């Protein structure tokens, strides 16, 4: 009897998606077996999706180490979220389109040989949380003819020179101008778009319009004769902007800036061999310390609290 | 002598407080709209300033007939300015749709803007000497039904 229980437990563990014991999201969909090499569509209905964050749904090769899948098909990657720009809402009937083979980096994957499946995880807003990681195995028909699909193009992107990908977001402050730059491995034409109103995009210049939350930029390769098109999503975390004032010259009489870079009024206090009246600094020979303060603005920028020490000769 | 004193005093007073004819209103999201004059001659320009507007929401700034409460402000001088040109209406957006890039005015930091809006006695068939007309802000056509961004400063046309 004990032996039967162990066998049943083994069978159960084989049927259940890996990590599924921890994930709250319930996956209901099909077909999952004997899929066509090209053009397969899996209709998925999710339930009990946590509200904490969105989900990524990717076609990946199952990791053998227990770590997250690293070898994934860029062309079969969906963002399930209520955020603007997401591929599907969690309540939608999700159309997932895996392929029987794909190229990931330098690795060519044949899903009739490797164990491919749907890998689900929390999106970038809870990137380190593994509790929704789960893997649903897929199987494909063997390739009948020698027609191999074009490999997916690969996009490498930077924002202000820093490498950014779906899994490695960047943080930008309110009104911190940034430039997105991307390269298509196949040399295909790239187009850029903003996926959230919190970030404006003018050509390749990004302007964050909020100091909290997040936004995302999409980079789409049109594909060409050697590679199929693909879209990369570049998430951006938004942070409060930094208020600044111009450098104060170490002179005996200085007109101090009345407003910060965000237009907030600046209040000054002077100690040492100097005094400030309104925005006029009058100093004598010696050390002069000026403290400058300006109010913060909710969701846009933090307060200015700075001290400047001048040595007047 | 008394007459001269009165004229000088009036002139001085108007010079010292140029904002005496100005007006300011605060919106539902804390945004502030102000005008340089609430009485103006037909065809004249009024300086309109905004501050604290949500930079993620585009707006139309125009001189319009004040609608019934809760209704879309219309008609407006210059109409809906999807072309982004003209002095009777402005489209202010930091994140316009692709077809409108270059046509809109961007918000300055902290949701600020400053425009000169031309006011007129007539808006279409409406006579602003008989009906209430106002410097008006509303969310752009991407949120055309959202009335929570509507702001009005009535202008009296001399």
Task: Please characterize this protein's 3D structure.
The complex is a heterodimer of chains A (313) and B (158). Chain A is mainly beta and 313 residues long. Chain A has three domains: 14-137, Sandwich (Immunoglobulin-like), CATH 2.60.40.230; 155-239, Sandwich (Immunoglobulin-like); 253-312, no CATH class. Helix content of chain A is 4%, strand content 44%. Chain A has one helix and 22 strands. Chain A has one helix at residues 2-15, and strands spanning 26-30, 42-47, 55-61, 72-80, 93-96, 101-104, 107-110, 116-122, 134-137, 155-159, 162-164, 170-173, 178-184, 190-194, 199-202, 205-208, 214-221, 230-239, 253-255, 267-277, 280-294, 304-312. In chain A, the strands form six sheets. Chain A has a five-stranded antiparallel β-sheet, with no helix packed on it. In chain A, strands 4-3-8-9 form a four-stranded antiparallel β-sheet, with no helix packed on it. Chain A is elongated and about 85 Å long. Chain B has 158 residues and is mainly beta. Chain B has one domain: Immunoglobulin-like. Helices cover 9% and strands 33% of the residues of chain B. Chain B has one helix and eleven strands, in the order H-E-E-E-E-E-E-E-E-E-E-E. Chain B has a five-stranded mixed β-sheet, with no helix packed on it. A four-stranded antiparallel β-sheet of chain B has the order 1-2-4-7, with no helix packed on it. The two termini of chain B are 30 Å apart. The chains are: A mainly beta (313), B mainly beta (158).
Search tags:
heterodimer, A: 313 residues, mainly beta, Immunoglobulin-like, 3 domains, 5-stranded antiparallel β-sheet, 4-stranded antiparallel β-sheet, 22 strands, disordered N terminus, B: 158 residues, 1 helix, 9% helix, 33% strand
């Amino acid at each position: 009897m004990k032996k039967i229980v162990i066998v049943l437990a083994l069978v159960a563990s084989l049927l259940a998606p890996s990590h599924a014991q921890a994930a709250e999201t319930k996956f209901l969909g099909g077909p999952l077996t004997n899929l066509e090499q090209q053009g397969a569509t899996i209709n998925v209905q999710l339930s009990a999706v946590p509200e904490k964050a969105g989900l990524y749904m990717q076609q990946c090769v199952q990791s053998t180490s227990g770590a997250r899948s690293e070898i994934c098909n860029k062309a079969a990657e969906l963002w399930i979220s209520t955020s603007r720009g997401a591929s599907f809402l969690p309540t939608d009937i999700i159309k997932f389109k895996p392929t029987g083979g794909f190229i990931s980096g330098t690795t060519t994957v044949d899903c009739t040989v490797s164990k491919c499946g749907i890998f689900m995880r929390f999106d970038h807003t809870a990137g380190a949380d593994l509790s929704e990681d789960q893997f649903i195995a897929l199987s494909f028909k063997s390739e009948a003819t020698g027609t191999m699909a074009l490999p997916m193009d690969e996009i490498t992107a930077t924002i202000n020179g820093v490498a950014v990908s779906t899994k490695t977001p960047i943080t930008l402050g309110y009104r911190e101008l940034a430039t997105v730059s991307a390269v298509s491995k196949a040399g295909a034409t790239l187009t850029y778009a903003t996926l959230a109103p919190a970030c404006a995009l003018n050509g390749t210049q990004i302007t964050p319009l909020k100091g909290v939350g997040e936004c995302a930029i999409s980079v789409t390769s049109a594909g060409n004769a050697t590679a199929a098109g693909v879209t990369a999503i570049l998430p951006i975390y938004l942070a409060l902007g930094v208020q600044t004032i111009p450098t104060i010259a170490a002179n005996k009489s200085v007109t101090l800036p009345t407003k910060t870079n965000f237009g907030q009024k600046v209040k000054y206090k002077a100690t040492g061999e100097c005094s400030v009246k309104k925005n006029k600094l009058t100093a004598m020979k010696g050390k002069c310390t000026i403290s400058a303060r300006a109010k913060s603005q909710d969701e846009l920028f933090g307060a200015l609290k700075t001290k400047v020490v001048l040595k007047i000769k | 002598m008394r007459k001269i004193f009165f004229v000088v005093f009036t002139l001085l007073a108007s010079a010292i407080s140029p904002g005496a004819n100005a007006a300011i209103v605060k919106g539902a999201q804390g945004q502030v709209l102000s005008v340089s004059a609430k009485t103006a001659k037909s065809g004249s320009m009024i300086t309109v300033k905004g501050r604290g507007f949500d930079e993620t929401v585009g707006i139309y700034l125009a001189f319009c007939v004040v609608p019934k409460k809760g209704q879309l402000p219309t008609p407006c001088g210059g109409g809906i300015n999807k072309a982004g040109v003209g002095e009777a209406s402005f489209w202010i957006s930091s994140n316009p749709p692709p077809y409108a890039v270059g046509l809109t005015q961007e918000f300055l930091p902290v949701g600020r803007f400053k425009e000169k809006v031309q006011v007129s006695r007539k808006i279409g068939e409406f006579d602003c000497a008989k009906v209430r007309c106002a410097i008006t802000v509303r969310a752009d056509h991407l949120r055309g039904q959202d009335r929570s961004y509507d702001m009005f400063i009535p202008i009296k046309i001399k």
